[in-house]
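In keeping with the milestone schedule agreed at the kick-off meeting, the structural modelling team has produced records for the first pair of proteins. Each record is given below as a sequence line and a structure-token line. The laboratory manager (R.T.) confirmed that both were archived under the project's standard naming scheme.
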Amino acid sequence: MNDNGQLIIEAADDLLRVTINRPEKRNALSLNLLDDIGAAFHSHRSKPLKCALLTGAGDKAFAAGGDLKELDALRSKAEARAMSSRVHEVLDEIRYFPVPVIGAMNGVALGGGAELAMACDIRIGSAHADLGLIQSQLAVTTAWGGGIDLINAVGNSAALAILCAGQRLTAEEAQCLRLYEAVCPAGDDFGAFTDDFVARYLNKSINVLRGYKSTAAARRRQLHEELTDTARTAFVTAWVDDDHWDAAANALKKK
């Protein structure tokens, strides 16, 4: 096990388990923490794994979003574009990891946390694990490819409605859209629920798991290659607009 304080990395048998470990901060995502997540997946690409699991510590949040104070310091178009590209590349380590990556939503996944969740191939949730690509509430669009992942998952029309509204989906709603493959019943142990879910993958042939993942990843990569420039330009335009700065200032005051 590797524990750097903010991230716990465990690789045993056929499973890589990565746990965001900032429960006191609702597992908020600093840029350095995101880099560490990407590095953890990158360093295990050549390992003989069948599956990977990404989750958060505690029972409140998988990841409540990006670090608003850190991101608020990025004021120019160049800074916004560089940040978007940097974190998109981090999440690509998850999107194109050679085996299925399961996101275990132990709590809410909001904003950038929802983009991290959407980078996973498959998601499961606790009963209170709301999923919210709520960036429009801050007068900005998704920065790290999460909007593209949502389009890939639910289709153009449904994704557009969710993204424009900044809709926060309950775990039940997310399951109905197949954004969550399973939801742990309220009161049940989420850790045991997660272990049972992962077990159905670990008992499969490594060639089957890697073969299906390679096909799915190729399709996803194609969509990102088609849409990333458009999505990034839209993000940068929104990021430097006064509407975004006003909304961000109000959010920081509330925090």
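The second protein of the pair:
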Amino acid sequence: MRGLKGKNVLVTGGASGIGQATATRFLEEGCAVCVVDRSADARVRVTKELPDLAAVIDADVSDIEQVHNAFQEAVNCMGSVDVLINNAGISIRHDFLDITPENWATVLAVNLTGVFNMAQTTARHMVDKGSGVILNTASTAGDNGYPHYADYSASKGGVIALTKAMALELAPVVRVNAISPGYVLTPMQRAEYTDEMLNAVNRKIPMGRHAKPEEIAALFAFLASEDAAFATGQVYVMDGAETTGGLCSQWAHE
């Protein structure tokens, strides 16, 4: 991608799934990359698998003090942050009537407040230096109803609205976009779905499969590059046409 080589990139939730795939892609593009992740096991693993990372930072994005400390550590390692991939998120599969106040608070704290915490901290830095790109991970669940994920859907709907508001206020200095993946075969998805459930999902996706994390990473790379220099304030859906035809798509592979 044009204009990525030499850029400094910070990826939250970067030690697994879409985040790790995205960190890998930016390393391949010649960027310096720091990842932030609160999972100790994931941090150990990604350090071994991606030894060229500038830093692997322990932080919970829902905690503003940890965010400030993590961001400063990234700046200390790379000199600045040119691109933020705001990807950290959690998902809990449960019925709406069973969601506890604690469940709700936990999901919103990471998926929405965490995105705000990291975005605002990074945006201040980018405005001061005169340029930057912030890319948020949303979800098709943010503007479509999915059973068993009401809190997750609410959080991702908030990310979509936040992305658009940020883009208006931060233009033309900082570009802000979001990617809304559909079903992606990540460790988080694998942990929540049986093989039968995964196959049932695949049957309703016109492309006949889940996305690969590397495919989402490729879109992040494009949106961060100079090839997307006029792209801001948008939400880019990558879901294999699952949501394109509404209910009709459910019959595509019956």
